[in-house]
Amino acid sequence: MSFQETDTVRAATPLDGVRVIDMGQYIAGPGAAMVLAELGAQVIKIEPLAGDQARHIGRYGESMLRAYSRGKQSIALDLKREEGRAVAWRLIGASDVLVQNLRPGAVEALGFGPDAVRARHPRLVYLSISGFGMQGPSRGRPGYDIAAQAESGLMSVTGEPDRLPQKVGAPIVDAAAAHLGAQAVLAALYGRERSGQGATVRTSLLEVALHLQATTWSDYLGGAPEPTRIGDGQPHNAPAAEVVPTRDGHIVLSAYADEHWARFCRVVGREALVDDPRFCSNAQRVRHRDELRTVLRECLSAFSSEECVALLSRNQIVVGAVRSYSQVLQSADVQASGMLVEAVAADGSRYTTLALPYTLDDAPRAAPPAAPAVGADTDAVLADLGFSPEQIDALRRDGVVGGCRKNNETETTR
Questions:
Q1: What are phi and psi of 106, to 5 degrees?
Q2: What is the pLDDT of residues 271-314, one digit of tens each?
Q3: What is the DSSP pairing of strand 97-100 with strand 125-130?
Q4: 40, 137, 283, 396: which has the fewest Cβ within 10 Å?
């Protein structure tokens, strides 16, 4: 590997030896590159001299960086300058993957669109994430998570029927685009082993948002009525995804298979409900959903959420407590999962973050370095490209590169 590894020693991982250039902003592009970093790739984040846009939107932006730029190196580079573009081309020529989700037309204006890059480097895998795809009339529109939620139908089915449409409570489309983009890159790298050729991989937030609703869309495309907001519950099954109040909070409950409904009735001591004409089949329970919800409240409101979880789980009935973030952190299951890891900054400071949601064999989850400061690795990356100290100093004096020298780094995500 021609580039220097970060200071953290890593065990052998699937993408050892793979080099990734991250030209992304915010979540989708940087998130895809972060997935590849945690699988062992060396990821170099090319940032403007002022840094990723996420560095300029306050606390939430800092959280984006902590979540999606850990495990990377950062080089601050002015790509509007010919000298800066020359450095970027040298980096790209020594890499396997390029990831970008810049606003429509921006990367092409800089000369680094997929056609230009792969014409020079056909073995490269190029991932481009846009807002609305590159074929339709909206190809030039900027796209954020919330716009994709709105235009994919997701908001139309989220929320209460008599209230405004609601977004999902987290940027789920951005996050899913990151993982699906990384998945496609892995497929392209595997294909390259057979063909010797890279690939241009394109996805969009709109396409990802549609894909996340595959079951609902399949139902609608198969002739079902237009889906609408119903709040909790599912339109064709009951009780399914029902939110039920408990003594100290809420649970969600699903027991719509007749066997599971009968078991629920026995567990709560209401066996007569099994043969009640209103509830004797799934179709009848859907038809009498309001009465069913009244019964569920009667059966469970005297129990605490944890008592409900223990009782119903013990009897193989699907149930979950609705937990706050602080309660999630206290969950024995979350603690046992190993999902919470510490990222370590160059100055020795640490922060807790979330690992990838899967493991490979018995390998421990990666505990990557923290997100770097803007240009924290500029000198090291340039030196690995063959630039002398004098040349690096000249580039910095001319405003082509930025970032502090390695022995004078700034705070991790600032």
A1: -70, -45
A2: 999 999 999 999 999 999 999 999 999 999 999 999 999 999 99
A3: parallel
A4: 137
pLDDT at residue 410 in the model: 39
Secondary element (H or E) of residue 194: helix 172-195
Spatial separation of the C-alpha atoms in residues 16 and 1, rounded to whole Å: 9
- The residue type at 117: V
Q: What is the C-alpha separation between 6 and 369, in angstroms, rounded? A: 8
> For the domain 19-212+337-408, what is the CATH superfamily, name and number?
Crotonobetainyl-coa:carnitine coa-transferase; domain 1 (3.40.50.10540)
Read out DSSP for 136-183?
A: STTTTS---HHHHHHHTTTGGGSS-TTS-----SS-HHHHHHHHHHHH
**Cβ count within 10 A of residue 281:** 12
Look at residue 290 and give its three-state secondary structure: helix
362: annotated active-site residue: no
pLDDT per residue as tens digits for the range 362-375: 888 877 799 999 99
CB distance 114 to 128 below 8 Å: yes
Alpha-carbon gap, residue 104 to 140, rounded angstroms:
5
Total count of residues recorded for the chain: 414
As to burial, measured by CB atoms within 10 angstroms (0-12 exposed, 13-18 middle, 19+ buried), residue 402 is: buried
pTM for the predicted model, two decimal places: 0.91
174, 258, 362, 384: which is the annotated catalytic residue?
A: 174
The domain segmentation of the chain, as residue ranges, is 19-212+337-408, 250-321
Topology of domain 250-321, CATH? formyl-coa transferase, domain 3 (3.30.1540)
Contacts of 243 (CB under 8 A, 6+ apart): 231, 232, 233, 250, 251, 252, 322
> Do 210 and 152 touch, CB atoms closer than 8 A?
yes
